[in-house]
Amino acid sequence: MKENFSTRDRIINAAIEVFFENGFSDTTVDDITNYAGVSHGTFYIYFKNKKDALRELLKETFDLLYDATEAPWKREHSYESLRESIYGFFKIYQSHWKVIRTWKEAAMLDAEFMQLWHNLVDQITCRIKQNIEYSIRKGLCQPIDSAVASQALSGMIEHYANNYLMKGETVDLNIISKTLAHIWYYGIYGS
Amino acid sequence: MKENFSTRDRIINAAIEVFFENGFSDTTVDDITNYAGVSHGTFYIYFKNKKDALRELLKETFDLLYDATEAPWKREHSYESLRESIYGFFKIYQSHWKVIRTWKEAAMLDAEFMQLWHNLVDQITCRIKQNIEYSIRKGLCQPIDSAVASQALSGMIEHYANNYLMKGETVDLNIISKTLAHIWYYGIYGS
Amino acid sequence: MKENFSTRDRIINAAIEVFFENGFSDTTVDDITNYAGVSHGTFYIYFKNKKDALRELLKETFDLLYDATEAPWKREHSYESLRESIYGFFKIYQSHWKVIRTWKEAAMLDAEFMQLWHNLVDQITCRIKQNIEYSIRKGLCQPIDSAVASQALSGMIEHYANNYLMKGETVDLNIISKTLAHIWYYGIYGS
Amino acid sequence: MKENFSTRDRIINAAIEVFFENGFSDTTVDDITNYAGVSHGTFYIYFKNKKDALRELLKETFDLLYDATEAPWKREHSYESLRESIYGFFKIYQSHWKVIRTWKEAAMLDAEFMQLWHNLVDQITCRIKQNIEYSIRKGLCQPIDSAVASQALSGMIEHYANNYLMKGETVDLNIISKTLAHIWYYGIYGS
DNA sequence: CATGAATGAGCTTTCATTCAT
DNA sequence: AATGAATGAAAGCTCATTCAT
């Protein structure tokens, strides 16, 4: 009755589920293999250990997110484009939440996964920084510190997304994206 | 050569150090007692287990932070008062960083500590929310969603503070507080 | 690019190499099949397990050594014939060293391989014993215990050969064979 | 009903027994702790692992044997003194046989234990070599290669002792020591 | 109170062996 | 014959917790 997935995929998918369910730390290799319906030893055919399995599954998510988050923050920052970018970001964050939740837990425990997360965040932050610097050069906003501001704004979005998904999404995503876009837009361009 | 602290205090202080040094997960009871210079068994006289020790040490920090963070966010939100509040917040966050770092790791692993952190954050967020609602009522700012906005702003500050301390504080705190106050102030009150 | 050997031979030859390289204990079936360039499962077509493979490969070496060591120790024991026999023994020991090294390791772990080695040694020792007994009967040497003496002398040669090959052969084989023949010859025939 | 031994001693003694009984390779930590009547975890309080336990128990035997074997081979080599030395050597070899048997197995598997054994053998061999060189200088024997001869003779004794104990000691020790002393004495001094 | 030896449950990892293709 | 994925038994090691002193 096995699904049409490779054993490796079934383990990866099982890992995503049980990491999310029990947390990365509290998950044992047995939890994963039981969920995947394979024997204990099979895990070690495909992965060196639990950390290695996480590394592998994050690789895929990293690439997806890296590509998906590149474009939006590159565009010029009108209120409307910001609102759209934020809305889109929440959607994609939401669709990868199980993995992201695990990723962020692992990042608290292991510098490697922290670094990987920063690689992703830094890309976004960098785009925002470039936008702010451009706006400053054009005289569209006051000469604030672009490094601090870009980190603050990307952090605001990320933090809100985490809280939003951690708690269970009761607020309307339209209101969220409008409100965050408002703060962002006027926070930079208001004066 | 023992300090003039109670055994319990010495264990608590040792725990703070080794939790910060090795991480909460990777710390063993032995690590704590070795650092404290007491025997292994002594730990269990004062604490049920590692988690219990963390609970106890967070209690103290919680009360301190709860009191210290209440006042600032209550005041009216001029740019200058915001800048001062943010500056003060960073200072206190910094002085409790070892504990906060551990707290946030534990929060990723255990709902109890997550809840405790939220209790603290909620107080701050609540004050901010009241300020925004007051400003909306007075027509000082546009009618944005105060719940979302307050979470976003407190989240922005918290997130920046974490990154700032996680990485090792190379940016001038004055620039940080000015920049964050700018975004906040204009983000809410900018036209 | 496969050699013109049967699969079984390739596994046997691979086993000889990796047993010598890693030791019998530390060698896994995977090590052997990887070296042989065949799949894991193929091993079990030809052999029941690692021990079985060793048994098979020792059989061949046993027969070779059994035949090769029979003749020399049969001859009359003049100093010169002893020197030649010892020299020849070292040469043949050397040429089968990889297998012998493994054999002796296995003999320490398993009575079966110990017994097999003794079968070989006993043949040699028996010839030596017969020689000594002949010499005693003829009054060519003192009436020593032929069983003890023959074991001691074959043991001396074997032991020296092991040490010699274990360490890496820096001494001239001519000096070795002369010296050992001297001890042997005078040890038995010296007044 | 525990003996008046420290836990560490009881584990060491248990290790000696089960290493001898099952072989070092085939012994598990559980075998040792079961025999010692302590729990599994207790083993790891005193030793890093099985190899570490062996290292520790060999240390003691090494020191004993090193001291006990120094003196005899130093004396001048008359037939009678040789016979006595050999007899004494067998006695002490016999009394430490369980450990030596394990030691020699481990030496086949691990260079560290091989080296340790050689340290012991080298001391004896060195004394024998000095005796032979002295005899050569004094013209008491022919100018044979002292390095080869000393290794051959110490090897002969060691090898015989191993075989003797491995098989189960059916030969009279007096006959053995006489015979080996005979070969040694005339092997060097006969001409 | 303080100690630290002892416990044993729990998890990790390896690898010989099987078997469907 | 040959393959190599899958299995699961067998060790290994750690560490939270207990308890007699």
Radius of gyration of chain A: 19 Å
CATH architecture of the largest domain in chain A: Orthogonal Bundle
CATH class label of the largest domain in chain A: Mainly Alpha
Uncertain stretches of chain A:
none
Would you give an account of this structure?
The structure is a homotetramer of 191-residue chains. With 191 residues, chain A is mainly alpha-helical. The first copy, chain A, has 2 domains: 1-47, Orthogonal Bundle (Arc Repressor Mutant, subunit A); 54-189, Orthogonal Bundle (Tetracycline Repressor, domain 2), CATH 1.10.357.10. Chain A has helices at residues 7-22, 29-36, 40-46, 50-70, 79-95, 97-109, 111-137, 146-167, 173-189. In chain A, helix 5 crosses helix 9, helix 6 packs across helix 7 (111-137) and helix 7 (111-137) packs across helix 8. The radius of gyration of chain A is 19 Å and the shape is elongated. The relative contact order of chain A is 0.11. The model of chain A has no long low-confidence stretch (mean pLDDT 93). Chains in contact: A-B, C-D. The interface between A and B is large, with 39 and 39 residues. Chain D binds a DNA duplex (21 and 21 nucleotides) through residues 7, 28-30, 38-45, 48-50.
